[in-house]
Amino acid sequence: MKPLSLTVMLYHYVRDPGDRAEAGSGIPGLTVSQFEAQLDSLTGRYDMIAWPDLRQYLLDGQPLPPSPCLLTFDDGVRDHYFNVFPALQARGLSGLFFALARRPAEGLALGHKIHFLLALLGLEDLRERIRPWLSLAGGEVYERAESHYRRKWRAELDVFKSILQRDLSAEAESILSQLIVEHIGPEEEIAAEYYLTADQVAEMIENGMHFGGHSHSHPWFDWVDVEAQAEEIKASAEWLRIVEPGPWAFAYPYGGLSSQAPGLLQANGFAAAFTTVDQVEHTDRFLIGRLDGEEIQISEETRC
Predict the structure, then answer these.
(1) Where are the beta strands (DSSP E) in the chain?
(2) Alpha carbon of 196 to those of 17, 101, 182, 203, 204: distances in Å?
(3) Which residues contact 298 (CB under 8 A, 6 or more apart)?
(4) In a shared domain, residues 229 and 171
């Protein structure tokens, strides 16, 4: 792939307190007005493109406009239907939405369980509630991992999330599910109101939106083995075959990278993959970087 200058924006939660997306969960995100202001700024500075435009460039060499910008959204949450979709429609824009290949009956992905519980209990309380549930071996893993991640991360929240999402992911799944039921409610019902429905996805596609893969269970690809990566990618491809024609795009969960993933993605019908690396110059179609809209908002507010 020849060098490509492309600005790709990344968004997760776009919600206002108490709206249908936030639904009293307390999980914060970029507000709707902040998101709309970013859209208006981007459209004034860039040539906005859709996923098919980039796909044609990558596969067929179809030229892109001089200053291309692509909007992407991770996790397939209801925010994207209630708040993002109308804002894009109103401006004649298209978005690329990376959704999990997951049914509500399967509950919440581990990272999303953490979001709900942190919003309700806070870091210190949640940490204290998890520790007694750990097995003896799990407790030892927690202590070793905590020491390791404290050398890597400055924020205790990043340390805590890394332990649960990586080193203790298998044991944490059931513990977090029990805490969800105890403190919030039935996990299946929460998931059914949290993720996009098939009807919502279909309506978005009918109106110019596009969807890509984001795995089934949202693991770190640099943590799980190649067989697990293959299953996660296969699940995304199977879901996307029902949703829209390929080749598709993929977003690495958490931005975790592995050397095996590009080959697995190509073998399963994916034409490109997106990271969370902060860059606008790209030389590999399976390592396209993105700029985080929420981090940009925080940076701008800090400077003010």
Answers:
(1) 4-5, 7-11, 47-48, 68-75, 96-99, 210-213, 248-251, 270-274, 281-282, 291-292
(2) 19, 11, 24, 11, 10
(3) none
(4) no
CA 189 → CA 14, 23, 104, 180, 196, distances in Å?
21, 13, 7, 11, 13
Residue 125 has pLDDT above 80, yes or no: yes
User: What letter does residue 43 receive in the DSSP assignment?
Assistant: H
294 lies in some domain? no
In a shared domain, residues 91 and 205: yes
213 and 97 within one domain? yes
DSSP state of 19: S
Predicted confidence (pLDDT) at residue 303 exceeds the cutoff of 80? no
Place of tokens 């969807």: 211
Query: Does 223 share its domain with 170?
Result: no
What pLDDT is recorded for position 299?
A: 79
Instruction: Quote the tokens at residue 158.
Output: 């990043």
The H or E element that residue 75 is part of is: strand 68-75
Is there a single domain that holds both residue 88 and residue 218? yes
In 3D, which of 110, 286, 294, 85 has the Cα closest to residue 205?
Answer: 85
Q: In 10 A of CB 102, how many CB atoms?
A: 21
Residues contacting 109, CB < 8 A, separation 6+: 100, 102, 217, 218
Q: Please report whether residue 66 resides in a domain.
A: yes
Q: Is 90 exceeded by the pLDDT of residue 301?
A: no
* DSSP for residue 45: H
Q: How far apart are CA 196 and CA 218, in angstroms?
A: 16
